[in-house]
Amino acid sequence: MPIFADTQRLYGTIGGFFETLTTAEEGQLIHRVGGPVLFVYHRPEGRILWNPCPPPGSWPAFCVSYGEESASVTPLLTFEQDADTAHRFWLGEIDLAQALARQQLRAIGSLSRAMKLLPHLDAVYPRYAAFVGGVAGA
Amino acid sequence: MRVAAAVLADYGQLLTEELELDEPGPGEVAVRLAAAGVCHSDYHVYSGDLPLPTPMVLGHEGAGVVSSVGPGVSSVRPGDPVVLSWLPACGRCRACLTGRPELCRVPATAAEHGTLPGGRTPFRRVAGEPVYQFSLTGAFAEYTVVPEAGVVRLPAGTDLESAALLGCSVLTGTGAVWRTAQVQPGESVAVFGVGGVGLNALQGARMVSAYPRIAVDVSVRRLEAAAAFGATHFVNAVSDAPVDRVLALTDGEGVDAAFEAIGRPETIAQAFNATRAGGRTVVIGVTPPNAEVTLNAFAFPSQEKCLLGCWYGQSLPARDVPALLRLNAAGSLDLRSLMSRRYRLTDLEAAFQAMLAGTVNRGLIVFDA
Question: Which terminus of chain A has a lower count of CB atoms within 10 Å, N or C?
Fold first, then answer.
């Protein structure tokens, strides 16, 4: 049974969490990636885009857009995964290298800059867990 | 202590910096480096193809002398010559207990984060910013701190410049042939990419009397050099279609074992397509972590081909390094000829360029004694 019953709940949870990051210090890390990042989800289907707001240091750090609204921006990097995988990732339960190797998560585009953020995600995972009220992964 | 190190400040930006290096902690060893090989994997990190955190001390194929040890270290002591292992396995997990220490997740997870196991970063900038180290080694530094399982003691008097190459390219190339593909006498072999690792795959194939031993490369110089390391036939992938040429050299059948030692999806597919029915294709080369390769799916059941991966030559350095030293002493393995050029720490970018241009077998960063 998927964790998110439908796209709206996906957007409300993961998208809602992303929106909290736009005004958090960690949100400024988006500028290290150097461009828009698109998240494509399956089961349920969905698209969420992070679009950095220049210059670095400004607030919000990035803007979040959903679905068709996100299609007007060309992403620098796209992550494609099942929504359940995404939920587990933001809980810190997914080894990114292993997920890429098993194609549980596909990355299309310039991965190198995003991978530099890996050490910084340890501070972000607890925020997601708190946001969803401690719901464990499937 | 203060040490000079080659630091990847950001992708494509190398600096030689003075860093602070902590004393070794429990279970750790400090090593004064004598020499460190310049490997394509270091370049992959430099370019961002193998994306790791920065700033980072590069280098992973090194040898030196133990300068101090942390509490609890028992296998080495100050003054011991050692070669570094970039996969210090835990010895307790399922991978280790089932004879596959190269798949141990403890060093792999630490390497992905650029730290030692447990998250420690012994290198720091003078201002305090932590500096990561490549693959639990960080060999492009005057000194480094590594886990005890990350050093293999060498016999006294071992030439440390030769020994440095045992830390990666020799273990990896020979291991791919002996352990992953298990090449038998008389079997045919093709090596796609005859740089540092590929040359050692050829040496490994020569030592088990494989024939023919086909070198495939785009560099005329690398192909010429491959002859000295065991290649019997040569395919220039610029002027010839490599799959067609390998098939022509093997009566249209393909080779028993093909090795890809470059790290590109296109050449992985070529190596697979050049493998005979029932044969083995071994991928040694490191691609970016999101790279994908396209192969003909029907070839798997209909031709019973095996596609295998090889990480660190499926080696156990504590066992395999002494064996390789004995083979070198016996004249079966040639370590000396692998070293084409010596560089100072400040010349790392030039060393990368020479490696990419194919003008060296293996470049070596050497440190003052």
Answer: N
